[in-house]
Amino acid sequence: MIVKVNNLVKRYKELIALDHFNMEVEEGEILGLLGPNGCGKTTAINCILSLLNFDKGEIEVLGKKMTPDSYDIKKQIGLVPQEVSVFEKLTVKENIDYFCGLYIEDKNLREQYVEEAIEFVGLKKYEKFYPKKLSGGLKRRLNIACGIAHKPRLIFLDEPTVAVDAQSRNFILDGIKKLNKEGSTIIYTTHYLEEIEMLCKRIIIMDNGKSLVSGTKEELKAMITTSEKIIVGFLNIEDETINKMKNIPHVIDVEKDDEYYIIKFENGINNLANLLEFIKENNLTYTKLHSQLPSLNDVFLELTGKELRD
Amino acid sequence: MKNIFRNCIYQGKNLFRDFGFSFWSLIYPLIMAIFFYTALSEVLNSELENINVGVDSENPIVYILEEIDFLNIHEITQDEIVKKLDNEEIDGFIDRDLNIKVKESGINQTIIKEVVEQIKQMEKLNRPIENYDFEADYILDRNQKANSLVIIFYSLIAMVSTYGIFAGIETVSLIQANLSNIGERLNITPLRKSKFLLAGVIVALFLNLFANGILIIFIKYALKINLFNEIKYSAILLIMGNLFGVALGVFIGASNKKSSNVKTLIAIAITLALSFLSGMMNPEIKVMIDENAPILSRINPISIITNNLYRINLLESTKSVGEGILILSIYCIVLIFTSYIFLRRKNYDSI
Amino acid sequence: MTVFKHFIKIALRNKGVILSYTIIFLILSILNGSGNVQRESNFIETRLDIGIIDNSNSELSNSLKDYLKEKNNIIDTKLDEEYIKEQIFLGIADAIIIIPEDFDEKVINKENSIQIYNDDRKTESLQIENQINKFLTFINATYENGEYDLKDVKLALDKKTEVELVESDNKENNRGVVDWFKYYYNFTSYVIMAIYIAAIGLVMTDFTDENIGSRMKISSKKFLQFNKEIYLGQLTVAGMITLIFILGSIVLKGKYIGEVNFEKYVINVVVFSFSILCLTFLINNITRNKFIINAMSTVLSLGTSFMSGVMVPQEVLGENVLKIAKFFPTYYFVKINEMTVNSFLDMKYEISMQLLFAIVFLLMGLYFNKVKQKA
């Protein structure tokens, strides 16, 4: 375990920000910390990094208890904070060099690392620019470069793609994968499902300061009862027929969404065949029909009862 | 050590390139000096002016008055008196009975009165005229320029010597995780807070001393006002002023969670108010405080610097320098110590 | 009125800073204006502040001291050159006189017998030297058979002359009070400029920080309506600040209000406030950079004050300085405070100039605002 968080509790006066939060991270993985805005993701990271006091719980990073003075642990960590946190009056290159220099004392090695980081985030053209002159997406890339230039063993990325254009976003996500391939363990927080699906092997879903579940994508999807959704549009159908539809084997629920019906099935075989049979028997005409496997959104919805959207 | 040096370079760059720094530390003092100079140059170069006396042309006293070299005699008619007085063309009018008409009480009027009285008194004393020896001078003149206005310049220099205050505020805000994003980031690096702060203080002192140097050179060579005759103590005082400024800045930065906007305002207001009390806008304020509450001017850091600067450089007196430096040192130590207590916290209740 | 309400809300959030700023400056104004406000109805001889150190303590030196005491205020001093020099330097004493041990002898020989520390560029120095020389000349004039006639000299010196204080047409007769109000209100111009720009600038930067500006841009609020509400907000804050200063003068010198042209000061300060508010509006439309705003606050307020005769009187300022000063409303504000106003017409030119500046600032502000909105 590279990070181990056990029953972490953090209160802001009345508000409970973290409520017995648990997290374990294996060396070499990309862990996604998923949850809506304000669910406590950043608070959790700040506690793990010893920036914030907490009320209860244990935190171990790289096998040791994390304290504000754990300089040996800090040497192996990189943080990409949610806000762009760079010196306004230092250029792109100077910023990266400054932060890298806090870890890497050897001048030649540092030069090499800084060059690599600049290449890595694609800011070569902009290395003499001041942050103010960069677009939002480029600023984010600089923000990342400052956090990873020293090739840390463990990297925390706190919503690095908020308010970023599509091009920069893909660039960033590809970069993260590359970092992981090079051996860094990554903890990635976001409220974007697509990113998590694309990046992470393992996911922790958070809500209201609690870690609800953790597991691989497949494991999480297997956890919920709905395993398949078939979406159908009918030309002519009566409520009575709909009710009858619920008697098809494995059907859990039928919902109407605009002009389409969403038929939810639990795990089973021949679900589609059974439905087609039913359609034939009842002389129904359908306009559109497709099957959908459950998404993380379904998982989230089922766990928390709310949609995961901005 | 290498670490601190590297931090100095980068923090220095970050500060020096900042408009706020270059304005407050470099440009603003020069602008102020120019303002003061334009406003005061005539006052600074004032000369003794003669007193204007109006007399009736028929008045025999004219012959006596013309002998007195500090009087300008204006022969005017009766009906001009009030108008000339109103327009301040004459300070007073002497009539044939040696009575005087004036419009206000003042030093010039008093001197006219004395002159007229002397004529009357000589009559009364009733001694032969050859007994009076007006050539005799009983006075050994020890001239000491009364130049309280020059205090304005010393006060200005004292004020800007504390302008490391802004860099102090900035440094604290950069390293405190609960004050800035960069602080949050820096707090999870292996960089020790104390090193960053130390580098910040060194940079602030270095840059502000540099700015002070420019101001002094400007006053000396561009405005041609000679303010520094004694270098050693003056330099020590300026360095103490710099230390005090940075320490106060660190204190303001560390002691509250207000925005940097507000902190800057606080810093400006404090330095301006202390400078005002030390005589920067009106030296009479300083004299008034010296008379009524001398303790204030002994404990006001800007006054300490101002007073000692003019004493050392214009009055050749070094008596109070020791006390001043001691008091400033105490301030610095207290400010740094209390700041240390605020800054010691390494993790926070909220960010 | 959402914009207005929001503006006031931010202003209230910053009330601590704005108030302490105001109070600091109010205290400065009070200190600056402190002084004597006695009514002057007779001619009063100017008494100098002198210090005397008598090393002789003879009959002669004592009678000289008596004579000087009669004419001047004696202040404490000590036989310490550094101390004496500082007293002269600061203007605490007009002169410090040191009478030597062998005073009598030196006087008979008409030698330079008395040491005087003073600044020979000052009229006061002339006065004190005249007094001493006159006394000693008289003494020597009575010298006969190795003796002075101190009694005769004293009798002669008691001879006075009449001085008549000519009444002028000016209704503001009480110089002291008039001066107090003049200094107080002159200084207020510095304060108003400094606080308006800094405090309102602070609120405006907060306003922009919260991105209200851009939200408003896309909302249905009309450009003029938006500016009107912002301006109303600024007017409210500014009005409060000016009010504090007007009240300050009433609290401090309320009982003398009848003796000065109080309406003149109030009208003038209101007009001036208005024109500076427009200046603030302009600055806020040029920049939202807090450093530039703070810089402007200090430089403009101090600069115009020095050039326009707030800190040192207009009459001692160079002509070129005043030429530049004419491009700022402060010059006209100070001018009204300095002059005798019998009716509104007396100050119509200066008032119109201030209003003209207000309009120019306002129009320029609106222009820059428009330009920014398009950008």
TrEMBL record, chain A:
One of its GO terms (molecular function) is ATP hydrolysis activity. Pfam families: ABC_tran (PF00005), DrrA1-3_C (PF13732). The keyword Transport applies. CDD domains: ABC_DR_subfamily_A (cd03230). Keywords: ATP-binding, Nucleotide-binding, Transport. Signal peptide: none annotated. It comes from the Bacteria. InterPro entries: AAA+_ATPase (IPR003593), ABC_transporter-like_ATP-bd (IPR003439), DrrA1/2-like_C (IPR025302), P-loop_NTPase (IPR027417). Residues 3-233 form the ABC transporter domain. This is ABC transporter ATP-binding protein. It comes from Anaerosalibacter massiliensis.
UniProtKB/TrEMBL annotation, chain B:
It is a multi-pass membrane protein. It is found in: Membrane. Keywords: Membrane, Transmembrane, Transmembrane helix. Pfam families: ABC2_membrane_3. InterPro entries: ABC-2_transporter (IPR052902), ABC2_TM (IPR013525). One of its GO terms (cellular component) is membrane. The keyword DNA repair does not apply. Its main location: membrane. Residues 21-340 form the ABC-2 type transporter transmembrane domain. The chain crosses the membrane at residues 21-40, 151-175, 196-219, 231-252, 264-281, 324-343. One of its GO terms (molecular function) is ABC-type transporter activity. This is ABC transporter permease. It comes from Anaerosalibacter massiliensis.
UniProtKB/TrEMBL annotation, chain C:
It holds the Pfam family ABC2_membrane_3. It comes from the Bacteria. It is found in: Cell membrane. InterPro entries: ABC-2_transporter_component (IPR051449), ABC2_TM (IPR013525). Residues 19-367 form the ABC-2 type transporter transmembrane domain. The keyword Transmembrane helix applies. GO terms for molecular function: ABC-type transporter activity. GO terms for cellular component: plasma membrane. It is a multi-pass membrane protein. Keywords: Cell membrane, Membrane, Transmembrane, Transmembrane helix. The keyword Membrane applies. The chain crosses the membrane at residues 12-31, 187-209, 230-253, 265-284, 351-369. This is ABC transporter permease. It comes from Anaerosalibacter massiliensis.
